[in-house]
Amino acid sequence: xxxxxxxxxxxIRCAIEVHRAxxxxxxxxxxxxxLEMLDQNMSFERQVHIPVEYKGRIVGDYSLxxxxxxxxVVEVKAVDRFDPVFEAQVISYLRxxxxxxxxxxxxxxxxxxxxxxxxxx
Length: 121
Hints:
The protein is an alpha+beta fold and about 120 residues long. Helices cover about 35% and strands about 35% of the residues.
């Protein structure tokens, strides 16, 4: 079994705890700050910059909200409507980072399960 499955489970448990405590309706940055993944004994990096290459040249970069345990990209949203562009964003992050698992967490959902998407590349 892939270790990223255990990591995603821990991330989701942490996100549910944050959502239960804070509820929907806050700014994205607030949820970013509240995700205390270190409490789950997981290593993580915030605001990871990944270069975007085109024809061998760096033409820009992505800013990933979190990379957890060097295995999972986590993108945090706090939006009223789930837009397909968010899915494209996470998939692009996975491709650019070389990682294979991504989570999209929309904290503005009534229940976090409604705002949770898992992507595998």
